[in-house]
């Protein structure tokens, strides 16, 4: 199959480099190299290096020192490695292991014969959640639960050899993208905590949902070449192709248009945000964080070794 050519992706937000990215990378690799010196290696260190995960988190939080990002970076790496480890396993087993992982995040100790990943998650949890306010911890756990549900549903779709209608796929992807976890973490990392009633305001819920769509559609475009090699792997382009009976290249262009429309919708929704009174400053920091995550995700997708270079080279950035 000849390489698919994607139109440029629209992203008006500036790239922000982390000034101590090298330190962030070196410290993360040192931590994970120590974890991987076991007979039951569950993460490929070389693959981890190619992933460039410190770049993703560093560009999303460019003003924070590496010591503030360490636990969050380890959790990010854990999530990607967990996703790799669970790829292709039976949905029933994935569900069992996912709920065990959720229990660990809630404070449970893994069984002796549990997957090494679960023991590693226990250590990350202590550093990630130990000193956080109770309300925030509960919200973060709910975000993780939503992510696990999304990945379980995706596994069932693949096992059933299904291609979802676009509306069903959109709802599934909003869970499996995992953005609610990083958006919730953003508050803890950046040092602001918004009350539940503010976060539940329809305007903020809508804005965060749109940011999720932008990031999810970008990831689907970058991963398309890989997903085409994997029978019935859920992807926005494939759902568009089926529902609209489009050739693959036209379905790809339709997905790009959905991405760009979501970016423009984000800008409109941002401008329309109401005042939140005493919480206006914190809401502004949340919005800035969403902008940074959208850009960081796009930049990372162009540089990570997780996606084929042919895909990355065709998805240009627009400043």
From TrEMBL:
Gene Ontology MF, one: metal ion binding
SUPFAM superfamilies reported in the protein's UniProt record: Terpenoid synthases (SSF48576)
Cofactor(s) the protein requires to work: Mg(2+)
Keyword entries, A-Z: Lyase, Magnesium, Metal-binding
EC number: 4.2.3.-
Xref: InterPro entries: Isoprenoid_synthase_dom_sf (IPR008949), Terpene_cyclase-like_2 (IPR034686)
Gene3D superfamilies for this protein: Farnesyl Diphosphate Synthase
Xref: PANTHER family: BETA-PINACENE SYNTHASE-RELATED, TERPENE SYNTHASE
Family according to the record: Belongs to the terpene synthase family.
Protein's UniProt name: Terpene synthase
Organism: Cystobacter fuscus (strain ATCC 25194 / DSM 2262 / NBRC 100088 / M29)
């Amino acid at each position: 199959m000849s390489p698919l050519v994607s139109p440029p992706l629209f992203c008006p937000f500036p790239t922000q480099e982390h000034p101590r990215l090298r330190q962030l990378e070196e410290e993360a690799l040192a931590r994970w190299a120590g974890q991987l010196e076991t007979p039951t290696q569950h993460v490929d260190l070389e693959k981890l290096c190619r992933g460039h995960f410190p770049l993703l988190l560093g560009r999303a939080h460019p003003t924070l020192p590496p010591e503030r990002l360490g636990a969050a970076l380890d959790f990010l790496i854990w999530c990607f490695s967990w996703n790799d480890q669970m790829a292709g396993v039976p949905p029933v087993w994935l569900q069992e292991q996912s709920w065990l992982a959720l229990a660990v995040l809630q404070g449970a100790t893994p069984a002796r014969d549990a997957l090494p990943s679960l023991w590693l998650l226990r250590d990350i949890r202590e550093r990630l959640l130990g000193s956080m306010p109770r309300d925030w911890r509960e919200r973060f756990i709910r975000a993780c639960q939503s992510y696990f549900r999304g990945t379980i549903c995706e596994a069932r779709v693949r096992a059933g050899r299904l291609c979802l209608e676009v509306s069903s796929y959109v709802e599934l992807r909003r869970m499996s993208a995992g953005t609610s976890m990083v958006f919730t973490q953003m508050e803890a990392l950046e040092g602001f905590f918004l009350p539940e009633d503010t976060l539940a305001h329809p305007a903020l819920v809508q804005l965060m949902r749109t940011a999720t769509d932008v990031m999810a559609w970008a990831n689907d475009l970058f991963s398309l070449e890989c997903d085409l090699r994997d029978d019935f792997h859920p992807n926005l382009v494939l759902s568009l192709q089926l529902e609209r009976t489009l050739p693959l290249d036209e379905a790809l262009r339709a997905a790009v248009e959905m991405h760009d429309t979501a970016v423009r919708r984000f800008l409109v929704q941002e401008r329309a945000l109401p005042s939140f009174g005493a919480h206006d400053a914190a809401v502004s920091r949340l919005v800035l964080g969403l902008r940074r995550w959208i850009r960081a995700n796009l930049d990372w997708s162009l540089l990570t070794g997780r996606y084929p270079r042919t895909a990355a080279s065709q998805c240009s950035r627009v400043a």
